[in-house]
Design a protein that fits this description.
2 domains; five-stranded mixed β-sheet; 6 helices
Length: 281
């Protein structure tokens, strides 16, 4: 599943080609993939493309929103007469003719351009929501980890209220949005905190170290276009390269960059968790 840096990469690349385009027609090939009245979108202009947590937000000229969650295998592929740009799970759809058997929704846009929403395993979704409806959806998420609202005071207060493992807590999008599994592993290693440590046992200084580490790895992920681990490819079909910068994720039995200890793998909260037992305490 693409994490915050990957979705931010898609957002930044899609915005220039989508903003200003008018939605001229919509073909819904799988009804559950688009929630909302599709006919009300026709004739609306795309005025903004942004991101909240792992959601892409396409704002339309009537102030309604198209919220898109790619989940595990979703794709957005933009095509016009000169180029094809895609983001999400890599399949033959990158190069084959579209629509494909995985295409769920087609947006026909002005200037002979098209936006395809493909989803092999059909976990992803698009929701057409009013301004109020979008606000309700966004309220399910805490502030993005790179949002100035995530202060030391905020995060320490939230940590103090739960004894859940700290890795589970920082991946809880209702507390902090955008810290997925790859970056949670690396941030905890950078801060030298054991992923199974109860959140309410962290000192204020440890919390500050972890906050700084989360922001550092997320910003590094954005800088490098996200990670190409598993299914993600960035919007041009080229790999992001954060995977060349990972600290512990998928580095089991290799040396820790902090202390040369040997990285171990376990499961916490049902997710593969990589850590150094020597320096993460």
């Amino acid at each position: 599943m693409p994490e915050l840096p990957e979705v931010e990469t898609i957002c930044k690349r899609l915005a220039p080609v989508l903003i200003g385009k008018t939605i001229q027609n919509i073909e819904v090939l799988r009804e559950k993939s688009l929630q909302g009245l599709s006919t009300s979108i026709i004739g609306k202009k795309i005025v903004e493309v942004s991101r909240k947590a792992k959601l892409l937000d396409i704002k339309l000229s009537d102030s309604s929103h198209l919220l898109i969650h790619l989940k595990m295998t979703g794709q957005l592929i933009y095509q016009d007469q000169l180029q094809r740009l895609g983001g999400g799970h890599p399949t033959a759809d990158w190069v084959d003719s579209l629509p494909s058997k995985h295409t769920r929704v087609i947006f026909r846009l002005s200037n002979h351009s098209t936006l395809f929403f493909n989803d092999m395993r059909v976990f992803g979704w698009i929701k057409h929501l009013s301004e109020e409806g979008a606000s309700v959806e966004f309220s399910r998420y805490g502030p993005d980890i790179i949002d100035p609202a995530v202060t030391l005071e905020y995060i320490f207060s939230r940590f103090s209220k739960t004894s859940r493992p700290i890795k589970v807590v920082i991946m809880d999008s209702s507390i902090i949005a955008g810290v997925g599994n790859i970056y949670a592993n690396d941030a905890l290693n950078l801060a030298k905190i054991h992923p199974n440590k109860p959140a309410n046992s962290l000192t204020q200084n440890e919390t500050k170290e972890l906050l700084d580490a989360m922001i550092e790895v997320i910003n590094l992920g954005i800088k490098h276009g996200g990670a190409t681990i598993g299914n993600f490819r960035n919007i041009d079909g080229f790999s992001g390269n954060y995977q060349t910068k990972v600290l512990v994720y998928q580095r089991e039995n290799l040396a820790c960059f902090n202390c040369a200890g040997i990285i171990k793998k376990t499961k916490i909260g049902g997710r593969g968790t990589f850590y150094c037992p020597n320096c993460q305490v």
